[in-house]
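Next comes the chain:
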Amino acid sequence: MAVKKLASGKSAIPKAVKKQNYSNKLRGLLDDYSKVLIVHVDNVGSNQLQQIRTGLRGDSVVLMGKNTLMKRAINEHIRETGNSNLKHLEQLLKGNVGLIFTKGDLKEIREEIAKYKVGAPARVGLVAPVDVVIPVGNTGLDPSQTSFFQVLNIPTKINKGTVEIITPVDLIKKGDKVGSSEASLLTKLSIKPFSYGLVVQKVYEDGSVYSPEVLDLTEDDLAAKFAAGLSNVVAVTLGLSYPSMIAVPHMIINGYKNVLSVAVDTEYSFPLAEKVKEYLKDPSKFAVAAAPEAVTGGGGGAAAKEEPKVEEAEESDEDCMLNLFDD
């Protein structure tokens, strides 16, 4: 194969060799790492990407490339290793995406990536990722610019020789395309309304694929979801009268209630039902059972009533002492 030489005298690497080197690198990463973040890279510059690589250096590797080349390398790796789980990763390579291989904590890696978002101006024709609102305040523009604001129906006034916006203005809605007038206004006001960076779309971990929102779940969230799942299982098993480990306690309690209701309505009895029958035959026993609480409450009330008497006695003594000096 002929090797071209660059103007500097160095030999140029053929494209076929570059592709093979890239494939070998990707396949090596697939062997070394079991966790991969699939990130969206639209509007991310090369300098910004280099900063992200530097920030993640140590336990993570950022890999970019053409989707067709990455898919080919993954499929070759699947054929050689038999790891069919990587097919899930190959199916995620759609659009302008990149891969971040990591051995660190996935939530911490995502938070580190978010630090490298940078502000960007609103360019004409760009789809707004967020709502853009012009705040109230002085613009620093001279009064000759008032006509520009009038075209966009933005209320203004002249204050100390400059144009001042008097009410907040919803300039662009999320999902709308940026027009030339809006872009010009934001440029005049030196506002960069958008911010761009790597956005995690999916997480691949040991053959499983899930949404990045899962990384935000706490132990309390997992416990609550687990408890809700157990409640659903209990409800189903009880409804079907199908015994399970978590439904048996409820079945025993329900069975006890049924037997107790039969014992109350018939002459059949058992030790635990005797006490219930006694209470039903003589309702006054309910009052006897509640009497200790009433006595405790009455004692407290009596003590509470005695305190004012002491205070009154003390007050009367003081009055007598004062009366001695009235003459």
